């Protein structure tokens, strides 16, 4: 249809269109001729009837102008030359015949048929005189005029018809070209809008991918786990996906996005499962497009692949997509999944290496706290000091829980609140440490505090103080829990334990 419209737009196919129009017009003319002949017959019968009623069939000899002008002019104007000549010819026959038949019939009745015919013939032309010529002219004048008028008016009608046909063809061609141009414009407009949507979508995708890529370029494993979800959604746009980390000979789920309560996907894959052997052992990307992989996945997902570090080649886990749009699963999506798995695996392996190297550091610049390694060393030192001096030593371990607690802003807010509590409400002997290097657990070492008698009270007081500073900083949906753990307890019971007025929890209260 579009190619035909293009041919018409470029001027091709005009001959075919013209032939089609001519064919339609010929069919119309044939039907119009039948109507014209019917109209001529009806008008002639009507005029003959009126002539009989008025003058006894004399061809309207006494009527001026002759009523037979009506069909001649009317038919010529309405239908053209041929029909007009037919009407003029019939009018002439009826008019002249009516005038001649009346006297001949009267003469035949009075004198006989032979005499009437002889009188009608009137001998040969040599006996004609001027009077006879005038009489003959009176009979022939009107029929000649009718034929001439029918011819002239009919020719004008034919010329008008041809002009109308030409205008109709031009109008038809103009309408077709207008339709083609309109269709082309609408198609171009639709293409432009679709292109704008695609460009806007690509720009949005690039921006989203950039933001997600920044989210995993972190040095903490917990921060990388948070950013992985955005990165996977930006690249693959899955409905359900999960992330598994390798823990010895087991793959354990650490992130599952989009899972419903009634989903029965496995959260752990040990070394005996087919998925573990394919992903970790053979480092094979599994897809339901492959019949063998579909059987091995056994309904656990659509895509599954190893999280591999490009730098070291080690496998740190598995990325699995459980649900994906039908149009989103194609050849390029498989390649994107492979690149994404290597990207995430490399980022996570880098954070592990960084944490391992950071474990030997004295101070964690990112946390602005003493490292977990220092905490373990200081705990051993304080235990020895407590044994030598005979004092109790207690460690208070704090844990931050809640919505996006590992987000950079929330994590820094918790650390700042903890530092404010230590600096403003505790003795200079107390220091804050990072605990377990996961970004949300911290520890304080408190000399002279007995874990059994006063540990729970002191831990609750510290947690409440940190929560107070978080509320002042307008950080919501974060909960701080604290537990007391004895580093060293003196073997002899004391008469009085540590109270809030003990120097270790000195001033700054109130």
Account of the protein in words:
The chain is built from 13 helices and 12 strands. 59% of the residues lie in helices and 14% in strands. A hairpin with a 2-residue loop joins strand 1 and strand 2 (250-257). It is α+β, with helices and mostly antiparallel strands and 510 residues long. It has helices at residues 2-9, 14-55, 69-79, 81-111, 113-121, 130-216, 221-236, 274-281, 291-297, 331-358, 372-389, 408-425, 455-472, and strands at residues 240-247, 250-257, 268-270, 286-287, 303-308, 315-323, 363-364, 369-370, 393-402, 432-434, 441-447, 478-488.
In short:
Helices cover 59% and strands 14% of the residues.
The largest pleated sheet is described as:
6 strands, antiparallel
Supply Rg: 55 Å
Q: What are the segments in which pLDDT stays under 50 over at least 5 consecutive residues?
A: 5-14, 494-510
Structural class call reads alpha+beta
Strand content: 5-15%
Q: Give the strand order of the largest sheet, numbering strands 1, 2, ... along the chain.
A: 3-2-1-6-5-4
Distance between the termini: 86 Å
Order of helices and strands: HHHHHHHEEEHEHEEHEEHEHEEHE
How many H/I helical runs? 13
Counting DSSP E segments of at least 2 residues, the number of strands comes to 12
Average residue-wise pLDDT: 76
From the spread of the alpha carbons, the general shape counts as rod-shaped
